[in-house]
Amino acid sequence: MDSAEYGGLEQTLGQPIAGSAPAEWGFQNRTDLLTLADGDRMVLQRYRNPDDAERRLRVMHTLLEPAAKRGITIPRIRRFDLDADPAWIVFDALPGVPVPASGELDLDGPRFAALAREMGTLLAAFRRLPTAGLQLDDLWASPTRLVESATGWAAALELGPAHRASFDRTLKSLPTLFADRPTVLAHGDFTPVNILTDGETITGLLDFESVRLADPLFDPAWWAWSVSLAGSLPAAWPDFLERAGFDPTDPDLPLRIEALQILRTLELLAEKPDLTPVVRDVVHERLLTMLS
Q1: N or C end of the chain: smaller count of CB under 10 Å?
Q2: Domains of the chain: which residue ranges?
Q3: Sign of CA dihedral 175, 177, 182, 187
Q4: C-alpha neighbours within 13 Å on the C-beta side of residue 198
Q5: What CATH class has 97-291?
Q6: Cβ proximity of 125 and 200 under 8 Å
Q7: Residue 262: per-residue pLDDT
Q8: To 5 degrees, how large is the angle CA 59–CA 60–CA 63?
């Protein structure tokens, strides 16, 4: 938004915007933290894809009250314009900062372990939220459809013979690994960067454009993918799983986690052409590592 658009937003909000700065999250869309004249803080997010804006608006509005009843804080929407170019939404700024910005980056330290347990509890509560009115896709809860989609995603990438063979084995294992599994509400991007903390406790959950129906392990798999970018899984991984309602000693769990990570990484590369070159290279390298 230029100054004229900010002026229109000020009129919509009913007071001047005293300051703005890029937020420490929301990198896929332009996200600014606004400070209003009366000291209130709000978030302005502009969306590259208007469908993402519409989905986020619908999900945040529908889940706000049910989530609050389960102790999950979701930002309240204040204003929006889905017909603007780009589409935008203004919502309350929650207290706290994303976990990576809080200084809790010692993944094997006691503070991150405590946060990991809290994140597991948060995830267990989130997946029990009602799904009525959300109009969500259930691709990730249907192994047969997922195999078909993953085949198409892989066709767009150059994989060597060894990586291709590994990928084919993963696809072949899917129907058995995920047969007769329950379907739950998944956040879709349940990672520390989308979870706020004040240094002591979790203060809110962000980023709802990837919410979907999926296998119960979809979110734990992506959480593990995100926290293991720098190496192996943190010591808190079993505690996170237990708090989230899973048995970390289940012999099939590592296989299911790895399969979901491979396919989600593949989906990200195939369905997100606007990834920056640096991010795309990192994600592609992770895919090759998992297939090695």
Answers
A1: C
A2: 3-92, 97-291
A3: negative
A4: 6
A5: alpha beta
A6: no
A7: 98
A8: 80
| 41-47 and 87-92 strand pairing | antiparallel
Q: Do the beta carbons of residue 261 and residue 278 sit within 8 Å?
A: no
CA 219 from centroid of its chain's CA atoms = 8
Q: Three-state DSSP class for 81? A: strand
CA 21 – CA 13 distance, rounded (Å): 18
Beta-strand pair 97-98/17-22: unpaired
CB 259 within 8 A of CB 171: no
- The structure tokens listed for 125 are 């509560």
CB 187 within 8 A of CB 208: yes
Distance in angstroms (rounded) separating the CA atoms of residues 210 and 132: 17
Its pTM surpasses 0.90:
yes
pLDDT by residue (tens digit) across 151-209? Answer: 999 998 989 999 999 999 999 999 999 999 999 999 999 999 999 999 889 999 999 98
- Strands of the sheet containing 195-197, edge to edge, are 97-98, 195-197, 202-205
Contact status, residue 99 vs residue 192, Cβ threshold 8 Å: yes
Predicted confidence band of residue 94 (pLDDT cuts 50, 70, 90): very high
Q: Are 208 and 60 in contact (CB under 8 A)?
A: yes
Query: Considering the domain 3-92, what is its CATH architecture?
Result: 2-Layer Sandwich (3.30)
